[in-house]
Amino acid sequence: MSGVKLEESAGFDRHTIDYIQRAAATGLYEIRGLGAKRRVPNFDDLLFLAASLSRYPLEGYRERCATKTVLGTRFASKPIELAIPITVAGMSFGALSARVKDALGRAATEVGTSTTTGDGGMTAEERASSKTLVYQCLPSRYGFNPDDVRRADAIEIVIGQGAKPGGGGMLLGQKVNPRVARMRTLPEGVDQRSASRHPDWTGPDDLVIKIKELREITDWEKPIYVKVGATRVFNDVKLAVHAGADVVVVDGMQGGTAATQTVFIENVGIPTLAALRQAVDALDDLNMRGTVQLVISGGIRSGADVAKALAMGADAVAIGQGVLVALGCNSDTYITDGNHVSARDDYAALGTAPGFCHHCHTGRCPVGVTTQDPQLELRLDPGVGAKRLRNYLKTLNMELTTIARACGKQDVHHLEKEDLVALTVESAAMAGVPLAGTSWIPGQGTAP
Amino acid sequence: MANLKPVPSAREFDLSRDSLRQLNLYLHKHAVEEGISRIGVRNPDGAHSIACGLDAELDVQIHGHVGYYVAGMNQHASVTIHGNAGPGAAENMMSGRVHVKGFASTSAGASAHGGLLVIDGDSSLRCGISLKGADIVVGGSVGSFSAFMAQAGRLVICGDAEDALGDSLYEAVIYVRGQVRSLGADARFEPMTDTDRAAVKGLLSLAGRSEDPGTFKRVASAKSLYHWHADANQEY
Predict the structure, then answer these.
(1) Phi, psi angle pair for A97, to nearest 5°
(2) How far does A182 lie from chain B, in Å, by closest CA?
(3) pLDDT over 80 (residue B93)
């Protein structure tokens, strides 16, 4: 039939029709892993103004550019010293295999940075392999115990997560194997629903007291981080600072998860770019920049992202999904005995393909990263994983220092907002930097 | 022999004079080094975090009312509060014994993994929330949402329970003697067995109580929320 044109509805496109029909068939919301897939303003929308005549660059391959990062200087008697401002974000044993946690620790230790536990307690493997380990205190308190508090190098009180601020964790039954169940004090195979509120405190005034309790337990030695999912960031960061945090971690909506409702991932929270500016504004408002350190996370992928985050005012970044991708997430192949083996059939069995997979929740990870299956987890050799992750982190750091040198900075922490411009009006407004080629920051003064 | 000093068996802190930091540091480090096992605390005046993070077989006697998180994360120690306790008493306790002679505020025994928490009086909201293996005996009544999402362990309530008792329980078991205003999602009454009566008798004995175990009812999880399904009425 020549001349007949199929017209797809903008409101009821194929994706929407599929969503409605799936909901009608199952009566349950969709659950998946990883982070938001929708396009939101992000660090790609910023550019650096490197040195030229008005600024003096450093020799890119020769001159020293410091990356040392110290976190927890406010109250803790033993702050954390890192070689680079790039850390590994909290991800649970349960979501990830013990072999993966081991690999994260090895790589982080090799490059001189920290890794972080997750909603499932601290494994012996990750403690042994991580020189610097941040121990999360989550609403569920799964596996949380004083011995591990004392073994940790810092404590991170998790209020929320960028992928699901206001929501609790989730681990479907296929990943609750005997060891995971034992660590979390849960029945094997149960569809685990974590609490969204802490069991022993309910608001910022209580948090002040909770933080002091943890300081008393640790004899005021260990830094206390407070992590929030990005929503009302300006107020939340101020409250965290008032509560006594040494470090505030802000996780933007692009942050990943092992399993959460899709409606949550795509519709709750604000982009990392906007969250970071609000967090920095809050610290500035309290005159706490440099006293309380800021860690930003949620969709950080490259050295350029790290550099832009630092220029906007972060002291460090935390990376989750990028780390998993470095280990092989969404790769065509996994590596066994040095050989690449195709995983395409396993992706297909999940109804997906490399590059599109977000099936962490199923426990059937084709490359052995987000699984508890005893066969699948063998697809990630901890030594191979550690090497790949080390390479990734080193690459990011090299990219970071390359940009910092070009901007004339002898220390990556000297990058500043004045080094940045925005490509779009939206990103200029969110980041609080001028639209490229203008001096206009939307929302701040009048348009040129 | 004349040079030997007698080893002191007890030490007393007065929080109107000594700081909380001095007390807790002593309990964490110096008490064991000095061979002191019995420590008294006077004038707590509602201070928070008294005797938290203990990790030795100490006997701590607190004479007065305490604030938040008394004996938080306790291991091995026995802590007695001769007064009332604020929120989070014995939170995340791993082992040992905590005894509140008066009343306890919210979230008593929250997320406790082991040991025994005894509250002679009433306990407020969320008693035993997120319980992970400890035992709690409450001489009086408990507030709403007690044993919320409790995963393991036992909660004995000699008085009444307010709304939503045992909401979203996992494997923890509740024994309640008085009235229950309402059960939470997925909690149900179950028949008491001889094993249950023996368990209640043992726990009451440890708590120094004499109620008849036969007068208690058992509340446990119906386990209908253990797995996702469409007919759970949004109770997840």
Answers:
(1) -80, 165
(2) 11
(3) yes
Chain mean pLDDT for chain B: 94
C-alpha–C-alpha distance, residues A105 and A278, integer Å: 31
Using one digit for the tens of pLDDT, what is the confidence trace for B31-78?
999 999 999 999 999 999 999 999 999 999 999 999 999 999 999 999
Tell me, yes or no, if A210 comes closer than 8 A to chain B by beta carbon: yes
DSSP string, A105-167: HHHHHHHT-EEE-BTTB--HHHHHH-SEEEEEE-TT-TT--HHHHHH-SEEEEE---TTSTT-
Q: Does B236 touch chain A (CB under 8 A)?
A: yes
Chain A neighbours among B 190-209 (CB < 8 Å)? none
Question: How is residue A433 written in tokens?
Answer: 């930097």
Counting one residue from chain A and one from chain B, the pairs whose CB atoms sit within 8 A come to 109
Q: What percent of chain B has pLDDT over 70?
A: 93
Query: Would you call A193 an interface residue with chain B, using a CB distance cutoff of 8 Å?
Result: yes
Show the tokens assigned to B211. 């109620």
Residues in chain A predicted with pLDDT less than 50, given as ranges, are none
Condensed to tens digits (0 to 9), the pLDDT of residues B100-121 reads: 999 999 999 999 999 999 999 9
Give the ipTM.
0.94
Picking from A145, A195, A220, the nearest residue to B113 by CB comes out as A145
Looking at the complex, report in whole angstroms how far the Cα of residue A211 sits from the nearest Cα belonging to chain B: 10
Q: Is the dihedral of CA A256, A262, A267, A269 positive or negative?
A: negative
